[in-house]
């Protein structure tokens, strides 16, 4: 946990094993990544804090064709594979996003929207590993970048192959522990070739269904068949407030509510080119009411057992963790600043955003390191959550950090000279980042936590400089 908070140690762990061809290149990658992590979201020049030698070294690294973006990413993936070893059950969340640019480099990148759009860039498919028990982020295990041609007929291969390709590389990097991994995908992955590939390799998955396919067991289609099944049980979930758009594209506010869902399950068989494809299905349907205009409806295809309500609810719980990769995309593109980079050569830009991908993961982990009690409570582990909250914050913060933090928000009733609780530290850092808890969730966004953490680090730097000046006999 401490390595997440220490940018030098974090960078060393991620890039020490990179095959960069020269130990000096490895040292440079580690140094540059640490500076970029310390100043997440800032330009490379700003991350070097005015040190001209560092700035020149950073840009030499970014322009060095002997350091491929693929090798940078492979080094980070290797570290993630090492971190994943102890976990009993791992979620591999797959999804695709676009990196969009409008400056000079855009002319050499691929189509994102229409051919007349000024924005061009990469499509990137990522796989993020989570601990299934707490849903905390382990790390990034795979990324694939590609440029979409203006004419779809010029594409080298179908983009739908990205799902199976992601599984292939996870398989190579994770080895024997792949049996503990459950791939989690949205409706775009509802492709028979992908499902078939996963089952041929005895790999686990939860995929949201898009197609109501015909079944071997009945004349009904999949969705029709599920409607006719008996209810296994029901449960209630909290739907958070969210700004969204209606069918006409106008902004609307989705109010927070409690949704009651009924659960049905079925074991079905798809027919694929003369072969049969057995799969388990969990169907969660929100009960309709006058206030619910768009009820939740999930049809989840899975290899996991569905014999009991507890097993079905676990599958739903797994799928609800899928949103975490959307959080990663935001942290990578906005928080770490991947879409604000202005390199003019595609490979230079790709080297920079490859480092920033792991910095985006670190932004998520910084929040999760101090919000673990929230995830434990979601699992019903109340005593464990209280125990974590009561821990001293020096398990994650250095002495200078928590002492400076106390200057901004001294804990009520705290008379001990030792470090306050982890709960206090989380709330104090979030407040520094502007968190006011207007939604009464008690959980700050990663942006608020990062802003608070960044502000704290600025004050800590000043505090340490002042201590050095006093030690040297200078007056303040």
From TrEMBL:
GO BP: any one term: DNA transposition
Gene3D superfamilies, A to Z: Tn5 transposase, domain 1 (1.10.246.40), Transferase Inhibitor Protein From Tn5, Chain (1.10.740.10), Transposase Inhibitor Protein From Tn5, Chain A, domain 1 (3.90.350.10)
Residues in Transposase IS4-like domain copies: 218-358
Pfam family, one: DDE_Tnp_1
Superkingdom, natural source: Bacteria
Transposase Tn5-like N-terminal domain sequence ranges: 8-67
GO molecular function: DNA binding; transposase activity
Record-linked SUPFAM superfamilies: Ribonuclease H-like
Protein name: IS4 family transposase
Organism: Shewanella livingstonensis
């Amino acid at each position: 946990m401490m390595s997440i908070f220490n940018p030098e140690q974090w960078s060393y762990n991620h890039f020490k094993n990179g095959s960069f061809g020269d130990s000096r290149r490895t040292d440079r990658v580690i140094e540059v990544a640490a500076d970029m992590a310390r100043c997440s979201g800032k330009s490379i020049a700003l991350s070097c804090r005015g040190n001209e030698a560092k700035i020149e070294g950073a840009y030499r690294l970014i322009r060095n064709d002997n350091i491929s973006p693929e090798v940078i990413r492979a080094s980070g993936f290797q570290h993630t594979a090492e971190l994943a070893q102890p976990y009993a059950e791992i979620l591999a969340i797959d999804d695709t996003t676009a990196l969009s640019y409008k400056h000079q480099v855009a002319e050499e990148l691929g189509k994102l929207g229409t051919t007349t759009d000024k924005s061009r860039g990469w499509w990137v498919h990522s796989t993020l590993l989570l601990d299934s028990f707490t849903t905390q982020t382990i790390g990034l295990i795979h990324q694939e970048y590609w440029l979409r041609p203006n004419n779809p007929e010029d594409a080298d291969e179908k983009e739908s192959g990205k799902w199976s390709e992601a599984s292939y590389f996870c398989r190579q990097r994770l080895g024997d522990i792949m049996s503990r991994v459950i791939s989690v995908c949205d409706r775009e992955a509802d492709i028979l070739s992908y499902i078939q590939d996963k089952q041929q390799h005895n790999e686990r998955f939860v995929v949201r269904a898009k197609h109501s396919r015909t079944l071997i067991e009945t004349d009904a289609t999949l969705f029709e068949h599920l409607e006719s099944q008996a209810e296994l049980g029901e449960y209630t979930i909290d739907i958070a407030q969210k700004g969204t758009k209606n069918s006409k594209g106008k902004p609307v506010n989705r109010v927070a509510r409690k949704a009651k869902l009924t659960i049905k399950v079925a074991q079905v068989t798809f027919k694929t080119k003369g072969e049969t494809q057995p799969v388990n299905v969990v169907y969660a349907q929100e009960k309709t009411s006058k206030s619910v205009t768009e009820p939740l409806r999930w049809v989840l295809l899975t290899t996991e057992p569905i014999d009991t309500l507890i097993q079905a609810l676990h599958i739903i719980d797994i799928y609800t963790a899928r949103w975490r990769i959307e959080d990663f995309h935001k942290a990578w593109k906005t928080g770490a600043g991947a879409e604000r980079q202005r390199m003019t050569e595609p490979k230079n830009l790709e080297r920079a955003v490859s480092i920033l991908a792991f910095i985006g993961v670190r932004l998520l982990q910084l929040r999760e390191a101090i919000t673990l009690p929230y995830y434990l409570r979601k699992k019903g582990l109340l005593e464990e959550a209280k125990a974590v909250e009561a821990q001293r914050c020096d398990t994650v913060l250095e002495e200078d950090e928590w002492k400076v933090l106390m200057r901004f928000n001294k804990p009520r009733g705290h008379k001990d000279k030792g470090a306050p609780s982890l709960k206090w530290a989380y709330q104090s850092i979030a407040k520094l980042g502007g968190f006011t808890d207007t939604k009464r969730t008690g959980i700050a966004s990663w942006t608020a936590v990062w802003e608070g953490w960044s502000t704290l680090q600025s004050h800590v730097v000043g505090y340490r400089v002042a201590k050095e000046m006093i030690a040297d006999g200078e007056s303040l």
